[in-house]
Design a protein that fits this description.
Number of strands: 20
Helix content: 25-40%
Distance between the termini: 62 Å
Radius of gyration: 23 Å
Strand content: 15-25%
Largest sheet: 9 strands, mixed
Strand order of the largest sheet: 7-8-6-9-10-11-12-13-14
Structural class: alpha/beta
Shape: globular
Length: 468
């Protein structure tokens, strides 16, 4: 049987996939894009989704009319597995699911959509991961690269919502792909090799999927697995996991720090970001005067973006020019509006406690905080401790509301209200907030169960605010 992993050791050659039988698991945007990519390369494709709510007709409607892919929904037909040579998993599909295990045992190669995209990549890649800050940093690096190379030569892909496989065949020797890569996506890479990688931070998250912190860390570190000393890996010196990884990282490490001066790398001192070379610090920008982003988390994101962009060869003047005009990414500590003296902030992308801590730290007014949602197995102690007199009231919704309330009470915080629906929650926040306060949607939980995704949650919040 042909080996996809061996194919990944060289750049894309479409003929190597011709005639191979692939299974694509998952009918989300990355799965549908993977089907189109594989058919373009001449492979035979089966698209499968285990959802009992979907039918073969539903899956067919997601594909182009000219697609010849076989569509299967619901229960997996065992006899079909014998023909499958390789499997492309969508990020939401666990790598240890019974179906994936059976296919692996049968000899099928298991890869992900990011790996499939990289097999077609012709240019250079900058890849960014981390528990928090990925979207802001990736978007900023993308804008910097566009200012340097031109929009037509830059592709921003991955967990940011644009499948790699939809862009990879447009790449060229002089193009750059900037990827936001999640731990789910990194579980299924084997030849993925960025010229510059970054791990912004690692804190407990997605333990319901990865099961152990060790497995989660290993997935994040996989972003640099194929790198060499000719490549660069940007790491956060103030995160114990990324600092430790710097000691064994195969690439040349560039650190950034928000707490101390570094001999080499980028650091925050007072209100300014410095670049240090051989112990000589050079001030680059003032975080209040030269940045439109708020919060220490965004200072770290900016330092990481500078390091990544410099690693990709972008002049400092270009980098700093883009930073000075760059605004917050939607759903990440995004200022929405002021209504009757109350500031409203949408931090719907604060889907874990550590991310939500950054949202609270960015607030400078008494805050009505919206929390709760889907239970990913997180603990909320540090999040509650970060309230530090800033949170005026905690309004809880979703599956985790009782769990969070119990944690808050253990820490002596009892200014808690419950809401059964998002609409009830938003009205309650408006009633509680007085002129001079802030209302912050920063749930510390995923959105599943009440919303399709964090983006829908954030959009509904903004629609409500705009209608006040």
């Amino acid at each position: 049987m042909k080996s996809v992993e061996k194919l990944g050791e060289t750049k894309f050659r479409g003929m190597k996939f011709r005639g191979m039988k692939f299974l694509v698991v998952g009918s989300g945007i990355s799965g549908i894009s993977a089907v189109a990519c594989l058919e373009y390369m001449g492979a035979e494709v089966v698209l499968y989704d285990s959802s009992e709510k979907l039918t073969e007709k539903d899956l067919r409607a997601l594909l182009p009319e000219e697609s010849k892919a076989v569509c299967v929904a619901g229960e997996w037909p065992e006899d079909l597995g014998e023909e499958i040579q390789a499997v492309v998993l969508s990020p939401g599909v666990p790598t240890d699911s019974p179906l994936v295990n059976r296919l692996r045992e049968s000899g099928a190669e298991i890869i992900g959509e990011i790996e499939l995209g990289f097999l077609q990549e012709r240019g250079r890649v900058a890849a960014i991961t981390g528990t928090n800050g990925k979207t802001t940093t990736t978007t900023l690096v993308g804008e910097i690269m566009k200012a340097h190379l031109g929009e037509e030569k830059v592709f921003v892909v991955g967990n940011i919502g644009n499948p790699y496989t939809s862009e990879a065949r447009k790449t060229a020797a002089d193009s750059v792909t900037v990827g936001e890569i999640s731990s789910f996506q990194l579980e299924t890479t084997s030849s993925f090799h960025p010229a510059v990688s970054a791990i912004l931070n690692i804190t407990p998250d997605h333990l319901n999927r990865h099961h152990t912190m060790e497995a989660y860390i290993a997935a994040k570190e996989n972003i640099a697995a194929k790198q060499t000393k000719d490549d660069i890996c940007v790491l956060n010196y103030e995160n114990e996991y990324t600092r430790g990884f710097g000691q064994r990282c195969p690439a040349r490490v560039v650190y950034f720090s928000s707490r101390r001066e570094l001999e080499e790398g980028y650091y925050l001192k007072g209100d300014r970001i410095f670049q240090s070379v051989s112990g000589q610090g050079k001030a680059l920008l003032d975080i209040h005067r030269d940045m439109r982003l708020v919060g220490l988390c965004n200072v770290e994101n900016v330092m990481a973006a500078i390091a990544v962009a410099r690693g990709m060869g972008v002049p400092l003047d270009t980098i700093l020019g883009v930073i000075k005009e760059f605004r917050a990414v939607e759903h990440r500590i995004e200022f929405v509006d002021t209504k009757e003296g109350v500031d409203y902030y949408n931090d719907s992308k604060g889907t874990n406690p550590d991310a939500a801590i950054q949202g609270i730290r960015a607030m400078s007014k008494p805050t009505i905080l919206i929390g709760g949602g889907y239970d990913k197995g997180s603990v909320y102690d540090e999040w509650i401790e970060s309230f530090e007199g800033k949170v005026k009231c905690l309004v809880l919704i979703g599956q985790t509301r009782e769990k969070i309330a119990e944690c808050a009470r253990r820490h002596g915080f009892d200014k808690i209200r419950f809401a059964d629906t998002f609409e009830e929650c938003l009205k309650l926040c408006t009633d509680l907030a007085k002129s001079g306060d802030a209302v912050l949607l920063s749930p510390a939980c995923a959105s599943w169960g009440m919303f399709r995704d964090y983006e829908e949650r954030g959009r509904l919040f903004k629609e409500y605010v705009n209608q006040l």
